Write a sequence for this structure.
DNA sequence: CTCTTTCGTTGATCAAGATCAGTTTCCCCG
DNA sequence: CGGGGAAACTGATCTTGATCAACGAAAGAG
């Protein structure tokens, strides 16, 4: 169920953190997502200050950024790419907590250890900050704290929405909700809303929706037969009938 | 499934908000939970300032504080009592997002409307603040914002834990996890950890755990037969074998 | 105190989705 | 281009928890 990534956390740690070529340009890679990321709302000077404590990294796909239980020293922001967060039970059951994209932040939590594992889905550029320095920055720049607070509230609202999905929706409703959410997110990022890309595997989708791989697969083909979606290949979905999908997602569907 | 409360929101609004007898003593009712509530960490003077914009209320049981979709004007903090937060689907399916107790805060969210309904479980004393004034206070007292931020991160971590429960745990595991959580929370509030009180109905528990009333009831009696818990009455549970419960909750149990 | 209503428990049956068991498709790599 | 392996798809069967139905017990109204 949970395959080890090609490189482990320690390699990662020793490989790149303070590599000189990465810390040079002040948030150059972030320009594109400035509007969304937690460093939005800051002035040019504030971003320059923030850049002095950040550390940039380019990671390959299927790479573990950190694991559940690791000492929680850093907070991350995604410049480009995609990340999944998940929790594991001792017998291997897995729940994916979220799929994250450009501008998303992760790594916040209680003291004493990350409460989920973070793994890249595709080659990903990350911005990393130590908790300690970020706390200092928040003291200096109230707008930074406010923005991070707001983003955390948004995450909480999304988590509550996901509780409704996991606890009360049927398989069809779960898949429909998932596809719409991905589509909206893609649009928000300036990507096409309809042939929506699925950078994650069927197993990932299943573990995100509280289903099995088989049920996800069956539901996809079922929706395709009903001409609600199209499946040009396993990694892309065409939202042929978005209104049907919306009705399905809310549980308002007839059939 | 969702019965209307005895009094509606408008009654509440017109009945008490700025009633003189409620705004007089500066957080007298909060003294007991000062350590936990979001106004912890503040100096005496800061609390005095905060008290000038707060509004206290005593609500009966089964009272709607606000409903999903209502304009989100206020943030609430529980002085004493218990509250449930839930989301509804159009066909009546319900997901309880959380059970809240003394010191807990609710009402944060996106602009434009509460994304859940808040209803008292028992007679409850609440502290109410307008978003606007609370924002002003946060600007003045960075410690206040920091505390609210921290509490929101905690809520998020709890929500992620609940996603694992809803998506991947069995009925037995769900119930075991729920009882342990309640017990720990009771202990933290200075109440006995073992004959733990269940201020909510079986329907509430079911809608919190993504189960039906019948399954919750059957699981309780099953655990009772196995001498893992005791059920003196419907509203109390004795944690007879806490370690068995812990194993069950983590999915480590043998049987 | 009794009637009524709601809530909780229990039993019988059902069905959505899980599990088990292949088969097909798509990549990746030689 | 062809072979190996992983990922996705599909079919058959099973199981958990849902649904349907009934009953008992506690709580609230008159």
């Amino acid at each position: 169920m949970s395959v080890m990534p090609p490189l482990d956390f320690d390699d990662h740690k020793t490989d790149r953190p303070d590599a000189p070529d990465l810390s040079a340009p002040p948030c150059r890679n972030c320009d594109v997502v400035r509007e969304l990321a937690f460093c939005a709302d800051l002035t040019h000077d504030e971003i320059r200050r923030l850049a002095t404590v950040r550390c940039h990294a380019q990671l390959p796909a299927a790479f573990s950024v950190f694991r559940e239980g690791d000492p929680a020293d850093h907070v991350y922001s995604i410049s480009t790419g995609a990340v999944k967060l998940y929790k594991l039970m001792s017998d291997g059951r897995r729940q994916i907590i979220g799929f994250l994209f450009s501008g998303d932040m992760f790594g916040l939590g209680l003291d004493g250890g990350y409460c989920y594992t973070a793994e890249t889905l595709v080659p990903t550029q990350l911005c990393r900050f130590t908790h300690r320095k970020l706390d200092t920055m928040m003291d200096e720049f109230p707008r930074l704290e406010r923005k991070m607070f707001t983003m955390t509230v948004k995450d909480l609202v999304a988590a509550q929405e996901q509780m409704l999905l996991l606890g009360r929706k049927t398989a069809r409703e779960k898949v429909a909700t998932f596809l719409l959410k991905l589509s909206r997110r893609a649009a928000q990022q300036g990507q096409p809303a309809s042939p929506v890309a699925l950078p994650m595997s069927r197993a990932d989708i299943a573990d995100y929706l509280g289903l099995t791989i088989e049920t996800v697969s069956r539901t996809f083909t079922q929706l395709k037969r009903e001409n609600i979606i199209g499946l040009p290949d396993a990694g892309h979905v065409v939202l042929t009938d978005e209104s049907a999908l919306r009705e399905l997602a809310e549980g308002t569907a007839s059939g």
In short: Residues 1-26 of chain B have pLDDT under 50 and may be disordered. Chain B touches chain A through 42 residues (CB under 8 Å).
